[in-house]
Amino acid sequence: MKHITLEACVDSVESAVAAYKGGADRLELCQNLLIGGTTPDPWLFDEVRKKTDIRIHVLIRPRFGDFCYTDFEFKLICDAVDAYRRMGADGIVIGVLKADGSLDMERMNILMEKRGDMSVTLHRAFDVCKDPFTTLDQVINLGIDTILTSGQENLCIDGKDLIRELVQASEGKVAIQAGSGVNAQVIEELYPYTGATCYHMSGKIVLESPMTYRKTNVNMGAPGISEYEIWRTDEGKIKEARQIINRLQKR
Which domains does the chain have, with CATH numbers? Predict the structure, then answer.
């Protein structure tokens, strides 16, 4: 029986606790999930560690946008890897590309040297790289543990053919983790089709802010993003995924 791993992507203590109670195997901890996630503050990590006892993998991403970083930005990435290694994170989630869309092997080697005993996931920088199979070979040579991918589509269900090819090509040397649009039903469809044994989901719901007084003509961020909606992981959605996984593992 193969073990199927369920990872929950969370950006708050509330979401981390919900994912933990719902049955997630591990957390990917970030901040600003609304923009794809950025490096979380150390005090968020500390509080999540106090409230849960499952593995925590920390996203290291200094800003929104692409994965071609300046020297200053790469210094921030290195410092974050050093900091979370000292703090006892179980894993890091990283990725650096060159301008031509290839994996930046020089910088990735530096990060692999800094990671210590932490496991390493190549995040969805993989989904915007130029050649997924060349990158897969590079990932294996680097000793990276996991690739998080939607199959180079917006949703992993649309990228399922590539995910299946990656699972086959990886020959078990690196875990292929399906992400983007994952829920219980997607896992039930993808697992028998692709053979992927790792899944990444936020299980998010949108909550109304408790604010009753609202200044609707003022934006704190990008226009079109409501200041009065809060993204949270729903314990029930994680439980649904866990139940599907438990059933699939018994087959």
Answer: 5-249 (3.20.20.380)
